[in-house]
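=== Structure Prediction Worksheet ===
Name of assembly: unnamed complex
Input type: mixed (protein and possibly other molecules)
Chain count: two
Listed entries:
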Amino acid sequence: MKKSDYLLFFPFFAMVFIFLVFFIAWTAGVSFSDWVGVFPSYNFAGLAPYKGLIGASGFQRSIVNTLVFVGAGVPLITATGILVAIVLDLLPSGITSSVMKTIFILSFGLAQAITGVLWAWIFNPTEGVINGFFESIGLEGVSQSFLTDPYLVILAILITLIWRFSGYCGLVFFGAINSVPNSHREAAKIDGASTLQVYRHVLFPEIRGVILMFSLLLSMMVIKTFGIIWTMTGGGPGISSMIFPVLIYRKMFSSFNFAQGSAAAMIFLAIIMVFAMPYLYFQYKGGEL
Amino acid sequence: MKRIKLKYLVSGLIAVFLAAFYLLPYWTALVTATKPPLEIRTTNPLLPGSEMVFSYARTAWGMVNGSFITSLRIAFTSMAVAIIVGSIGGYYLSKVRGRYVFGLLAILSIGIYIPSTVRLVPLVRVAKNLNLFGSPEYIGLAIGGGQLPVVTFIFREFYRKVPDPLVEAAEISGASHWQIYRYVMLPLSRTAAVTAGIIGFTVGWNNLILPLILTSGSSGRPIMAQVDLMSRASAWEIGVWNLQLSGALFAMLPIVIIYIILQEQIVQGWTEGAISG
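=== Predicted Assembly ===
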């Protein structure tokens, strides 16, 4: 490599180092410091920020909600995604299928902040669609203030997450189904399998690997949700819909507890890695890296 | 025969239900954005008002139009980083095979999943110290930096299909990496550049958390921070839903247009990226 060639690669090397090494080391450093307040302070405080954080109710709720989002959200999104994939598979390719694909991918491409605003309106207690529906069929009693109820708020966010991710999920599954050799489908049909049976016993079992991999990816995307929750609830009511990105933001920029906020960021990074490592391992084994 | 009909009836019903679910937010937002406050309170949120009123949309446009320029600057910077730095990285990893390749691959493949919340403190401190607070280009660079692992892999995958002898021949005839990158790789990169560019633009336009922490004051606030602010105002004041929904609809326009025009490429980019990293 010539000397001048280093100049070509320098921006790449510099950005990788700054964004993926240096900044993370910096945050790790702050997580062991005594930085509380607007002005930085880097005195070593040991594990104190971690201890303080783990005792905080916002942290515990973030853990619980993370588990709920992965445990309930991901299966619900995957199930809806399977429906989307089947619908796309049965639709003859043409303008309808193309429009449906645009609709499905658009909800994933839309800003989370916008998604949050749109769904906050749907869940609006007095004028929104959901409660308007209950009232119009004479069930005023069922009307709920979704976004101010500590339990229903989770349901509302899960529905919003399904809306955001299941279309994308369905498109991925649809692509995977299409890469299954057509002969498998034909063979099952000749054996007398119904359409549903072909999906249930042939196509989806064959893409099990894709579904598993994508669930890992979904888990990471779902627990990284910030904009939707921030615009819908801000993590509230109280701390009911708190998850890590919101907790980190609130610790840092509402309470100015940068030490605990950084500690939360490091713990969040570790949680993400629990999902990323198996994903990377499968990719590595599949020769994709 | 009967069975086939039932199959299409059921799947048709599911398709209609899914389409309704997916279109519901846009529809009720459009309908509400054109209603006066009184009608929002008294009429069905799924039905249009007695007449369409556009004055609220005009007011909302006045609240977001200043943010359009700021967010375009953010999005284009992030897009430029994605394409330029991503393609250089992809070239290095696929064709140069320097001694850092393995280490870089390890860092980048983990880096794809590192959440941006881990970088908030450094980004704020650097902005304060270098006096870049509120600069759209800085926010774009910060967002682009977060996307770097993803776009680098897009270019790497793409360049791997370029035959090695092509690059080797250029090397033997004395071409520098600058020349190979500029005259061999770049002209071949269209598809990858479009995919990476869309990702860079979308993420730059859509990002909320970095605009929230890296800007202050009202003039030229990035669009998503403005949408967020408008949604907060509605918590106190009843009847501004038409304003904030109009604002949200304006804010989604660039993305909607891009996604409609480039649907095929976007679906392909996102779905292939999901499986092969």
